[in-house]
Design goal:
By secondary structure, the chain is of the alpha/beta class. It is built from six helices and ten strands. Strand 9, helix 5 and strand 10 form a beta-alpha-beta unit.
């Protein structure tokens, strides 16, 4: 897949205006800006915890929670598979756009979305202009799937957030989208072995895989450890 546009856009920058993920509780937060890491081509070993705050939110009873993410996003390019590892999940939209524009993701594909959340809230504006800019300026971690469907990238979204849903066999071809918050403590009611075994079975079959390390819900070193176990 040609990811040049992605690497040009994702050069490492801050969002300090009330847009995208930075719009959450911005007026009430002390920390007013979020870092978006650069994207590099690499391997699994290049996925490392970062020190910059990439998500900030006011949590009732806990106050302001500032979460650090990844040092860099990583595109692992294999002969028949492209894997993108990001921290906040809305960046998957940018990766999908590169796949569609490169012809790697056929329009009308099936998206298998493994997550404790559905991420199907409706964004405030439809996709216009540059898809990467849209993913950061308008989209957030909870609303990035509907515009991908509206654009015709996906004709079917299979939601996998229960033990029963892990029993499916995705139809070929499909795009696999994993939020590692499916392994968060609140999701322990789904057996760990079941999640690992099913994902390991699906990963080799997916042409494109997007994986979010989910800083707000997952300790990042723990998320990276799970990521390594999956591969």
């Amino acid at each position: 897949m040609d990811s040049q546009r992605l690497t040009e856009f994702y050069h490492g920058f801050f969002i300090d205006t009330p847009q995208g993920n930075n719009a959450f509780s911005l007026a009430a937060r002390r920390h007013k800006k979020l870092f978006v890491p650069p994207l590099v081509r690499g391997e699994l070993k290049d996925v490392q915890p970062g020190e910059a705050i990439v998500f900030s939110e006011i949590v009732p009873g806990s106050g302001e929670v500032n979460a650090t993410g990844l040092r860099q996003f990583v595109h692992i390019a294999r002969p028949d598979q492209d894997i993108f590892i990001v921290d906040n999940h809305n960046h998957a939209f940018s990766c999908w756009s590169a796949g569609v524009l490169s012809g790697v993701i056929p329009p009308g594909s099936t998206l298998v979305h493994v997550d404790q959340h559905k991420d199907t809230r409706i964004p405030d504006a439809p996709p216009v202009g540059d898809f990467c800019h849209y993913a950061n300026a308008v989209l957030n971690v909870g609303n990035f799937i509907p515009p991908a469907v509206d654009l015709g990238w996906f004709s079917r979204v299979v939601q996998v957030g229960t033990a029963e849903a892990f029993d499916i066999e995705p139809p070929d071809p499909f795009i696999l989208d994993i939020d590692l918050d499916i392994f968060a403590p609140m999701m322990d009611h789904i057996p760990y072995v079941l999640k690992i075994s099913r994902l390991r079975r699906w990963i080799p079959r997916a042409r494109v895989i997007t994986i979010a390390t989910s800083p707000f819900f997952m300790d990042q070193p723990a998320a990276i450890t799970i990521l390594q176990e999956l591969f």
